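User: Could you check the structure of this?
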Amino acid sequence: MVQAWYMDESQEDQRAPHRQRPNRAVSLEQLRRLGVVYRRLDADNYETDPCLKEIRRAENYSWMDIVTIHKDKLPNYEEKIKTFYEEHLHLDDEIRYILDGSGYFDVRDKDDKWIRISMEKGDMITLPAGIYHRFTLDENNYVKAMRLFVGEPVWTAYNRPADDFPARKQYMKFLADEAQ
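Assistant: Sure, the predicted structure tokens are below.
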């Protein structure tokens, strides 16, 4: 089961858990109120999993690929790791399904505080368009993930500040509506 928590303010190794003391856990319901959708799937059988097939059909995820993030597998590894960890948003939802390994997605809450979401094999997450976030490996330094898109993939990340994009404005409206 996925775990999430508020991060401490430490600037040490980004791959460390960065839990506050005492730990401030974040529930799936709290993530849902931020527009973050979590699912648990059978990663050992992703090629034939009827649940994944149904999710792809229902959400219109027509394109997918698989990426391995490890120093021996990803060209320009060090540069990519730094880029993934820069705070950014996308104009489309970001959907990731962890097939092996583990890592962290960090998202901003409504008060602009970082929440760390620990992802491991079998976890699928959808981050809504317009949410500020970042990704890093954990101390295992390895993840294999499926990337899903509606239509053709768009890889553009817009580093913060990016508040003038319609996707960000729409996301901020979603947060305001959720607060009511």
